[in-house]
């Protein structure tokens, strides 16, 4: 009986393939019409969104807030003094400094200047960021409980230090759905630092869908070869033949779904259909050769080198133009336990002009107002030295008690600074922003009440912000 049905489906497929997308598209529409994705999209946004999309420029490894954003001139007079016990408190330390006899203060060797009408203090390592100081909102009281990379980056990306939860982009895709039929709603771009030292690895679970259906996981674009693996048709397979093959698969998968009701079968059909459309949309997307010279100049000389932070920032803008909801751009190499003064300038040079160029490019296209750009890592670095301390050469350990990041566009206050650290850059002095607060605020800017974006799993309603999170209304324009 199933064989006879297959023959009938094949006949219909041949007819519909000549007149449109064919049975595969029809089956996809029928299967997903009342799916959890559509049900969720009926609930969100909860209110008028400020942002339509997010570009998260994630600096994996922990950028030093004290050498980049958090100006502490008084620390120069405390060089090589021990951090007072009243400041250090009960802070947990990593195994990398557990054997140190003391924790000497190490002030930055880099100068700071004020920029823009807002008078933002920024390191001399960030001259281009200084040019957009009046467009960014600086958060200087961010904090996290995690003190090691994997739990810290997992916490920032999923709301939990333990693996297995859906990533930020997956939650947004689940809640808001896609605005582009031909591209994934959640795209991931990885960049290598200019010195080639990537340090910490990045696991694909950081853009995984966790317990959400797998159709919400992020799609990683590669910088060499096919942007997405197995996207191109093999030799001898025409687009028409591929369309017929997919329609046959859709018919078989529809039969299977009707029998067993597994939602992952819906995902399989959706992924095949998306891949078919991406065969046309992705090559055009990643071809930046037709971008005007002044645009490449804006992002810097590396913008023509695939896999660089500059090239990926330009690609992020092109994705945003096509209404991709969540663009996760990773840049690695910020784990500076030693040799910070040799490594940090390279990383700052990698990111400074492209990040500023992205803001200017979005702004001149009228897109910054509804595109939220975020720059930051999983934690900061300690105000005390790790290893041997020298006046012009030092390292810093992980530090989650307080660190800095910035946001721009998407409904945040431009030229605004929120929060501060104490005199040592060790603890939050005021305006603390917990990781869950940050996540709640980003969702709020997208028009989502973070307490209402939930998913039932193993008898419990889970959410990105777990059982915490408060919107930081002070930074919302």
SSE diagram, text form:
Blueprint: H1 2-17, H2 23-32, H3 36-43, E1 53-60, H4 65-68, H5 85-88, E2 112-115, E3 120-123, H6 127-131, E4 136-143, H7 149-158, H8 168-176, E5 186-191, E6 219-221, H9 239-260, H10 263-286, H11 293-299, H12 309-321, E7 326-332, H13 340-364, E8 371-376, E9 380-390, E10 393-399, E11 403-408, E12 416-418, E13 420-421, E14 428-430, E15 433-434, H14 435-445, E16 454-457, E17 460-463
Parallel strand pairs: 1-7, 1-8, 4-12, 4-15, 5-6, 5-7
Antiparallel strand pairs: 2-3, 4-11, 8-11, 9-10, 13-14, 16-17
Task: Describe the structure in your own words.
- α2 (about 25-30) packs across α10 (about 265-285).
- The protein has helices at about 1-15, 25-30, 35-45, 65-70, 85-90, 125-130, 150-160, 170-175, 240-260, 265-285, 295-300, 310-320, 340-365, 435-445, and strands at about 55-60, 110-115, 120-125, 135-145, 185-190, 220, 325-330, 370-375, 380-390, 395-400, 405-410, 415-420, 420, 430, 435, 455, 460-465.
- β2 (about 110-115) and β3 form a beta hairpin.
- About 35% of the residues lie in helices and about 20% in strands.
- The termini are far apart.
- It has 14 helices and 17 strands.
- The longest helix has 25 residues, at about 340-365.
- The chain has a domain at about 35-65 and about 125-225 and about 305-335 and about 345-380 and about 400-475: Alkaline Phosphatase, subunit A.
- Strands 1, 4, 5, 6, 7, 8, 11, 12 and 15 form a nine-stranded mixed sheet that branches. A two-stranded antiparallel sheet has the order 2-3.
- The model is unreliable at about 1-35 (pLDDT under 50).
- The protein is globular.
- It is an alpha/beta fold and about 475 residues long.
